[in-house]
Here is the input.
Amino acid sequence: MLRTFFSLLLLVTFSGFGPAKAQESGLNAVLETHREMIERPSRRTIGPVLDDLIASKAAGLDVFFESWREKLVWQRKSDGRFFYIRELDDGDLMLVDLESGEEVEAVAKRDIKNLKPNSGVRAVIASALVQFQLSDPDPERRLEALTALERSPDASHLSVLRGAIESEADPAIKARKERLERLLTIQFGENLDARIAAIESFSGDAGVDARAALNPLLTTRMEVHREQPEGLNIARILIPGQDIELADAYQMLVDAGDARPIVPLDARKQALIENIVDGVVGGVPVAELSSQDARDRAYRQLAQSGVVPDLVTDQEQAAAIDGHVFLEVYNEPDAAITAAAQSALSQINTTVGLYQVADLALDGLSLASIYFLAAIGLAITFGVMGVINMAHGEFIMIGAYTGYVVQQIIPDYTISIIVALPLAFAVAFMAGVALERLVIRHLAHRPLETLLATFGISIALQQIAKNIFGTQARPLTAPSWLDGAWVVNDVVSISYIRIAIFVLALIFLGLLLFILNRTRLGLEVRAVTQNPRMASSMGINPDRINMLTFGLGSGIAGIAGVAIGLFAQVTSELGSGYIVQSFMTVVVGGVGNIWGTLAGAGMIGSLQKIIEFFNPSNTLAAQTYMIIFIIIFIQFRPKGIIALKGRAAGD
Here is the structure.
């Protein structure tokens, strides 16, 4: 009786709690219902739990999903209830209610356990979390959700994404959602017309994501049949010996169980060894098995005796192949889908080709601007004085190191670059004047001695730079606003540093044209360039003009060094990498002519990029081909693209 009494008492007690549990609603109630699944989740069983949670529309559900995925949900051992936690100063943990966010009680860590779903479960949770993130008030979180969908899309995301498009207020994010919706429709859409419309919408689109969605639709597999079947989306009929190797075709028949397998040589050899009796195998003495024909004869004797499987003759293989049809079949069963994908990809390839040409032109223009900056000083020096200055590259190196030193003093990269440009010009200008005064002047009209002297000075300057700065490359850091690239689409892009160098080249082009055409110095330089004797008789001091011209050319090389150092490591050999291209630019364009130098830089820069495009893995070969082309070009136009008038014409 007493036992029955206690049983009834317990029944009444828990019955009293029953209605309260039944009335409890929201997140905690759903979690309590699926407690066992949440305690021991798996990728296969967690789906219904997530569906019930989403259907409940409980408050704080998105925060719970995210916390659960990040292993931030805990369970109280005493009653199995779930909480968030907050660490207290004394080492205990404060339980926080999942829905209200209110503090419940402080407990010791041993009284609770952490829910740690495995990677598979976390992936499923992340997939469910997307629908909340796509409608999150924070635009950054919506963009993060879109990025996550782009990385690992799933068929279940399509309906969620469609529902989040209408409520999107941000035009840029909405456009991105609509694009992703079309991409997912291509992959997971169930309506044929909608899939075809989505495919056609990407015709001519150069995006990598579009090609990534369309290319799988045209993947194929090879099949073999006794006669051509109906109902397959056939890409083409394969002709053995042309579209597929005969050996591969026969192996397909073997794999399909329609032909006897070919006994490999190793297996035949092993069979002969295993069947040697008294020095004879298959009626052939072992001593005579020195040729393949003898070994095959012995093997056939064994096959006739039923000891080993018979060999497959060439005639048997040919007959088996002739009796079958070999097909390349699309994995996509619907022919309308593959036809639309082929058409769209054809237009995409045309568009990508045009964009590649544009990207190649931008690369050539960028390289041409670098060559122009490096060569314009040499063009002025060479054109006015006729001096082959092999140390011109070292003035580029001096400018780069000047920029590096300035950045060590001025940590702000923007200000340091602004200071470095005129300072590099001044330092290189003074170095050029010193070289002209001390060496070049004394070797006037002796080109071989000038070449050798400047070559020696080039080596000396490199060694001095190594002694001062060491052999380790020094960084010349660009300002943060020059980081990244101007991206037109997935094909065309150009770095901001290259754009800045192009603008700098344009500025110097305009500045030099102004100096040469609108100033007295420019008038005197042009006079000395065209006819130094006549200029001298008109009161112009050719020595002074030569000095200023050499200094001006060297100063411009110093500025080019700062520009080049922004994307190349600054070393003592920095300038030597541009001296050959600089001379080629000057010679091809026309000695002493700014417009000629611009044309030469454009030709050489574009030519080098074109050659590299067709041979990207071998830049040395590209430079070799370019030099050969220039040698041939000079044979037909020795005075360059724009020939210099005056003295050069007379010489």
Notes: The chain has four domains: 22-120, 134-218, 220-330, 352-650. Confidence is low (pLDDT under 50) at residues 1-24, 646-651.
